[in-house]
Write a structure and sequence with these properties.
Layout lengths: L6 E6 L7 H10 L2 E7 L14 H14 L2 H51 L6 E5 L5 E5 H8 L11
Parallel strand pairs: 1-2
Antiparallel strand pairs: 3-4
């Protein structure tokens, strides 16, 4: 992950390409910790002239003396490490919730199937019976006994 080190913007008093909005964006995006305008400097080229070089050097020294590079980098890495750990926890929590939801759905489906099985009537076993004409017909035990008034027992070969 990108860790942007703190920066210092040093710009001329006149002829700067940065307006107030651009400076604000630079401060947020590029971690600008200091913004120094060199008095009397008229262009970026003048920043490197012998006249303004001491002021530029002083701005750099002041910035570096206030800045603890190692601490800043470590604190930024710690921030990203904590963010990654929080993301990992959130992902694991989501996976656990999804697994629990799947288990609940499976249990509900199983319960529904059991209720449906209990609710459906069982089919009566079929037996063969000879009609008055001598031909075999298929009938359920219940309908055969109702029609003739006798109990029909299945034969050993019918089971």
């Amino acid at each position: 992950q990108l860790v942007q080190h703190p920066m210092c913007i040093i710009r001329p008093q006149e002829g700067s390409l940065l307006d107030a909005d651009a400076v604000e964006v630079h401060e947020e995006v590029f971690n600008v910790q200091a913004h120094v305008v060199i008095e009397g400097c008229l262009s970026h080229d003048d920043l490197f002239s012998e006249v303004h070089a001491p002021a530029v050097a002083q701005a750099i020294d002041t910035f570096l003396s206030r800045y603890d590079t190692q601490h800043d980098v470590e604190s930024r890495f710690e921030k990203y490490r904590l963010l990654d750990a929080a993301k990992s926890r959130a992902v694991r929590l989501q996976e656990v919730k999804e697994a629990q939801k799947r288990e609940q759905d499976a249990a509900a489906a199983h319960s529904f199937l059991l209720q449906e099985a209990k609710r459906r009537p069982k089919k009566a076993s079929k037996v063969r019976k000879k009609s008055k004409t001598g031909k075999e017909v298929k009938a359920t035990e219940a309908s055969a006994s109702e029609a003739t008034g006798e109990v029909v027992k299945p034969k050993a070969g019918d089971i």
